[in-house]
Write the structure tokens for this entry.
Amino acid sequence: MTGIRKVAVIGSGVMGGGIAAHIANAGIPVVLLDIPKGGGSRNEIAEKAIERLLKTDPAPFMHPKNARLVTPGNLEDHLSMLGDCDWIVEAVLENLEVKHATYEKIERHRREGSIVSSNTSTIPLADLVAGMPQRLARDFCITHFFNPPRYMRLLEIVAGPKTRPDAVATVEEFCDVTLGKGVVHAKDRPGFIANRLGGLWIQSAIGAAMDLGLTVEEADAIMGRPFGFPRTGVFSLLDLVGIDLMPHIAESMQRTLPATDPYVVNLRDPALIRKMIADGYTGRKGKGGFYRLVKSGESRVKEAIDLKTGEYRKSEEPQLESIRVGARDMAALLAHDDRGGEFARRVMAMTLSYAAALVPEVADTVVAVDEAMRWGYSWKWGPFELIDKIGVDATIKLLEHTKQPVPPLLQRAKGRSFYRVQEGALEYLDVAGKYQKVQRRPGVLLLEDIKRRSKSVLRNASASLWDIGDGVLCLEFHTKMNAFDGDLMDLLAKSLVEVKRAYKALVIYNEGGNFSVGANVGLALFAANLALWPLIEELEAKGQTVFKAVKYADMPVVAAPAGMALGGGCEILLHSSAVQAHAETYSGLVEVGVGLIPGWGGCKEMIIRHTRNPKRPGGPIPPLAEAFQAIGLAKVSKSAAEARDMLILRESDGITMNRDRLLADAKAKALALAKEYKPPKSEPISLPGPTGAAAMGLALDDLRHQGKATEYDMVVAGKLAHVLSGGDTDIIEEITEDRLSALEREAFQSLVREPRTLARIEHMLETGKPLRN
């Protein structure tokens, strides 16, 4: 446990408010202070900030109730509140005078030993502590959150020579375990790590795109997926974060870096960007940016700016050959002779050269730089991991070809790689040219590390079973988007047998971007188009059988989702003995979007959970109506906390804030359950039958009259209502789980044969969006 039980945030702007919201997400009370407002409530600025946070999308709060943990106040009347706080975060204007004045107020009211930090991104720590009393300097550091604080994982910590190590350790543990942050220690250098390198990457991409006459779409396509960068690329990223931030960052870098630094040497001030900012085209928060949406009749059309003329035109898919080859082969993109290939060479050479030059200036290891870029800029691979993918020697040739310097660190790596696996352990190349083991933080357990040093217990094309120690096995999905297919179901069934044979428990977990998006609907469409109905029937029956075996297994099965757990991915959660979910788990039964209903026990389990929920409304119809609404509207939780509200998670299920700690937490939960585990007993339930279906039908009619339900929505929802109400039963009768499963199969099989369902599936596969037919 950390020593931080209450936090204060000074400054309720975008960053300060977001930091306060995320601390509240962790269940920690927060005092949010800002300057007093004249007239009305003197706390109005902080109060309005909380109101804004509750309306913001994507939501800073993981659950609206978390706002109750944030207490608004002002910097004149409520400074005494700081006396109860263990950590005080300053997030005021990036102005040194303002910050120093704030520290004077904090110092007069904080308690002995409380930690004070600044969220600054542009002011060196040395300037912040200049003239600071020794008592405060010992407790002071920089904690640089990335925006938005809930979703961006990186937290850079910068400690000064006077900062006491135990204060840094306390903040690090709290931010890691309680807030779920990826903590990186940076040195007191301009821009720290991520913004120093990320800023140069962006600047070099803008300059090269303008020089080579690329469109913004072409530049974003190249500086996106081919290199493992987010698909926003560069220009769309700037629209997202705000184009008007660029001049402020540039000014700070110019002021604090030497004139010979590549960041300063390559810095530009394009007239186009100055004009965009002056005209209010600052990105998504303004009238638009490099892209904008304009109304055209009943629809909206996406437009992109012409980098030469500054005029907007209809956005178009880029057609460069280098983009096509780059989707498959990074090296082929870098070698291509069109302007897209030249753009890639210029930007990546400058970026990778700069990255190698920054170690050890901004951080002691290549690992810290890679983590900072993965967590702060959502790169799939950090710069040194990218160099390894391209090849160290090939990277050196690229730098020489583009006349970029080859830093000493890169020269030392010649003929080798920055990372290697030695005797099952991951190692990195240090600044002296020697390999060191990559050290995980205490309590972190990663499947990628286990896979390096061991062989799978069982494996097929869709899943693998791994021994994670202490008698626990881990089932990993590795299909596209971790979708369920027959092979995955087969290995899940075999895993249950293997655990019963010689182990204590099973954890279902993977380290993909999403836990599972559900069934492989592409396979279902293929089978339906060939009228292979027995294949579809077999897969549905297999899913029901295997998921039932999970629920009633003799040993605990713990599901550990992160990201999307949709459709079948949600159904496996519903059947598991327990769930240990990452806080950012987005789960729901979404089958109606493709004209189907849940077919692997999802309907059955939601009925059971809603009818047996001790907090449910009275009478037989209300709990069914709640289940009907959740499934019929394809509701998806926006966090694990919301999944608990939806009864996808139980009160006894756990939530882990840090993604890297999820597997360890799930394993601990599995072992705790295994000590005296007894599988649940199947108990019949009473359902209202046609009376309940009729009641749900009335709600459906209302939606149709409001134009919110199409004719085919009525058909699908009618089948769903029939299943949820128990079919042809009566409230005085009892219905078994097997009977509910049979109702699911009947409804699913009738819908999957419908041409309108197949049209919905095809449209979803082609566009990623539901068809309203």
Summary: Residues 184 and 666 are 25 Å apart (CA to CA). The longest helix spans residues 194-212. The mean pLDDT is 95.
